[in-house]
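Please complete every field before forwarding. Incomplete forms are returned to the sender.

SECTION A: IDENTIFIERS
Entry label: holo-241
Bound molecule: magnesium ion
Molecule representation: SMILES string

SECTION B: INPUTS
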Amino acid sequence: MSVLNTILSHAEKYKEKGQLVAIFDLDSTVFNVSPRTQKILQDFAQSKSYKSKFPKTLLENLSQVQVRTQDWGIKEALIRSKIEAPLEFFESLRDYWFEHFFSNSYLFHDEPYPGAIEFIKTLHKKGARIVYLTGRDKHRMGEGTHNVLKHWGLPLDTYNKLILKPKKGMSDSLYKLDMIDQLSKEHPETWAFENEPVNINLIAKELKQVNVVFFESTHSRREELMHEMPILKAEFPFLAD
Ligand SMILES: [Mg+2]
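SECTION C: PREDICTED COMPLEX
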């Protein structure tokens, strides 16, 4: 039985005696964020203030850059593009990307991974509690995140809830560890879906009671996965059998 089928059957089993909780990371787990980055690069290339600052051909070359699903940030796409430019150009682009990527305004460009939305809805119908636990912070990205979850018809209320970081700059991994620890104490069975090995390694080490599923899409490259666990690959649909 696939791990997704196992979770669905366990959700039904626990329905009557305290619900199973399924915790989903958002960026690069439920949503492919490459279209967000792609749109930000295009808008930089179209921006009037940068048109007056940088050569036209350079901005045209930038608008041709293709961001791939496996890319992390903008660096890899830019290296692949072989764009040559003064350091000031890359610094301006980095700052522009950073300001807009971590904001409410571009989140609607994210694309759910195939099957992810349907799986979460089905899991909810089977009786699981759904929690979205993200490294996004409330101030910069809370409203946009809430709107996107609603847009896709995902379960979202005071119980099936969205947990954002209260402040930017907090450690994602420590914050997630703390939240998952609390949730796991309130439920007979806990599953956490996550793409970032830094977070997964800490959770798997500290919270033995939690079942972690590695969503293999892209990550920060800061750590490799150090524990045995079920793996879902981003190139295959997020489907139960
Ligand atoms: Mg993530």
